[in-house]
Amino acid sequence: MAGKKERLFVKGNEAIAMGALAAGCKCFFGYPITPQNDIPEFMSKAMVDAGGEFVQAESEVAAANMLLGAGACGIRAMTSSSSPGMSLKQEAISYMAGSEIPAVIVNMNRGGPGLGDIGPSQGDYFQSTRGGGHGDYRLLVLAPSSAQEAYDMTYDAFDLAFASRNPVLILGDAIIGQMKEPITPREPKQVDPEEGADWRLIGAPNSREHRIIKSLFLMDGELAGQNRKLQAKYDAWKKMVDFETFEVKDAELVVVAYGSIGRIAKNAVRALRAKGKKVGLFRPKTLYPFPEKALEKLAKEGKRFLTIEHNLGQMVEDVRLSVRKYGDSDLFCVYPGNMPSPDDFEAPILRALGRK
Amino acid sequence: MTKAQQAAPVAGEELVFSRPASMVDRATHYCPGCHHGIAHRMVAELIDELGLKERTIAVSSIGCSVFLYNYIDVDAVEAPHGRAPAVATGVKRARPDKFVFTYQGDGDLASIGMAEIMHAANRGERMSVIFVNNTVYGMTGGQMAPTTLIGQKTTTCPGGRCKDTEGSPIRMSEIIAQLGGVAFCARGSLDSVKNIRQAKKYMRQAFEVQTKGQGFGFVELLAGCPTNWRVSAIAANKRITDEMIPYFPLGVYKDIEADGTCGSLIQGGE
Question: Chain centroid to CA B37: how far?
Fold first, then answer.
């Protein structure tokens, strides 16, 4: 098949695991929880075959802390979970952010609060984009809307994590994880063996000072300095915002939606365009940093907005903050527990379009 | 942080005792009479004696000994409360050629970190754990620990620990020894020179089962906390001898080289 690109027919979860493998992930620490089990199942073999390590941890807490340990050694490592498990991981994620340890974390969002259900939801938007645990910190948050994007974002996430010495979160949901579609894999990365050489723990040769990776800063002014450093890093991320636009140029109303809901909303927009309605789609691919400037620009052009989310209204707060100088955003919520189709979105989009 | 520099002996005199090369030249923050300084020194001496300094990664825990990394001159990472064995698992899996140890107190290891220590031991992670048991939470001001003795008064059991409401003190060495991945498990004490010397032998074995790739090494050290026990340093040592050792018997609980069986005291315990 020379010259022809390989195509694979896989679930979104498998695409994530394959993307991680191709990105040079060498350690995976997981715990069973639906709907992400395909990821640790895939990795339990793939890591061993790749000469790496797979550990099914005793808990989500332990898995996240194993990730912290491997990341501190400068090794490309990953964990995955779903919403209730993510709550348990937040302690270690806060420590990783505070002590600037790179890692890739996957959340295949399911319905909540509490045990919720095992179906899709976007109820973890706040948790994902506001840090999630204690203290002032942020994660780079990437939201795929297809198996290919799930693959590509995971493939790139390790580079981002090491470049910024910060955990990167892939935020999918049960739809992204469980649907099966073709992907085109990419070339396996050759990871530089010197990656992280200036900070990683590898044992202190007598020729250098010993290194301490920590998040405790007790001396007067020390913690403020660390927080200032972190904030400067998060500010610098703003140039990395990524988003998709569809039919926005002459749109009167722009639908803002991410992930699986962004994909479904795109079909609704396409159907309404066929009926001559001037609607478009704006789909953030990075949820943090949020593409606020791009949305503000659209607002300045006089467009109006409808945010559609699979929760009770979370991202709409970021949309409203982005467009606040020029307008506002309507909101249509799909409640977790319900599975939407493009048809379900046409009526609310038309309603928002008609509300001059 | 100053690099360890040994004092040159004066002409005509012989240097017979000095700070271990793996110990940073720095005064510790520990209270007078605290045993952490002794335990730290024992760790540093063993790192020197076994030639491990350049390939050691330490995992410090939460409590008074979080600052271990300021005193031992090796690469180190700070774990969340109780999670040191999980963090050390990640470190060891990522860098299997390194020597990895955790240093944890009794609140950290036997309460909030119970799951992590049990499972790391059971998996037989090639790591060594130094468990310092002084029967109180020291850093936070002397609250009840899972190891607090019956009748012992703390700031959260001011009437003395009561078995009916707070349960019995947990004997970790006896529990850890039961687990399949453990290659060496022992309990020593820091209350006397004799016991300190014996404890260091245990620590050496707990380090060596890792360097030989045999499994998980665990040493519990009974230690004093004069500040939170509200007693003098000398009275603290006496309390270890008179009250702690009878409840927490000293000796080897598992030694894969001497005897594959485990669980009860197999050596020591006079």
Answer: 11
Residues A179 and A249 in one domain: no
Which residues partner with B132 through β-bridges? B105, B221
A159 shares its domain with A299: no
- Residue A33 CA, chain-centre distance (Å), reads 18
Pick from A73, A92, A214: which is nearest to B83 by CB?
Answer: A92
The domain ranges of chain B are 36-268
Domain at B36-268: CATH architecture: 3-Layer(aba) Sandwich (3.40)
| Amino acid present at A351 | R
Q: Flag whether pLDDT at A100 surpasses 80.
A: yes
CA dist A17 → A22, A76, A104, A190, B180 (Å) = 9, 13, 11, 17, 31
Give the model confidence (pLDDT) of A220-254 as tens digits: 999 999 999 999 999 999 999 999 999 999 999 99
Which residues in B have their CB inside 8 Å of a CB on A? 1, 3, 53-57, 59, 66, 69-70, 73-80, 83, 86-95, 98-99, 115-116, 118-119, 123
Residues of A in contact with B109 (CB under 8 A): none
A1: confidence class by pLDDT, cuts 50, 70, 90: very low
Cα distances (Å, whole numbers) of residue A85 to A64, A71, B86: 10, 20, 16
Residue A273 lies in a domain: yes
Q: Which residues of B touch A214 (CB under 8 A)?
A: 69, 76-78
| Reported confidence tier of residue B264, pLDDT bands at 50, 70, 90 | low
User: Does the model's ipTM exceed the 0.85 cut?
Assistant: yes
A92: nearest CB among B54, B80, B93: B80
Closest CA to B104 of B24, B220, B253: B220
Helical spans, DSSP H, in A165-205: 174-178
In 3-state terms, what secondary structure has residue B197?
helix
pLDDT at A33 over 80: yes
pLDDT, tens digit (0-9, with 9 covering 90-100), for B96-114:
999 999 999 999 999 999 9
Looking at A134, A150, A183, the residue that finishes a domain is: A183
CB count in 10 Å sphere of residue B140: 14
Please give the distance of CA A342 from its chain centroid, rounded to a whole number. Answer: 23
- Residues of chain A contacting B79 with CB distance shorter than 8 Å: 65, 68-69, 95
Residue where one domain finishes, among candidates A165, A183, A201 = A183
- The upper half-sphere exposure of residue A205, i.e. CA atoms within 13 Å in the direction of its Cβ, equals 4
The structure's pTM equals 0.95
Q: Could you tell me the CATH number of the domain that includes residue A337?
A: 3.40.50.920
Residue matched to tokens 């970021």: A318
Nearest residue of chain B to residue A207 (CA atoms)? B54
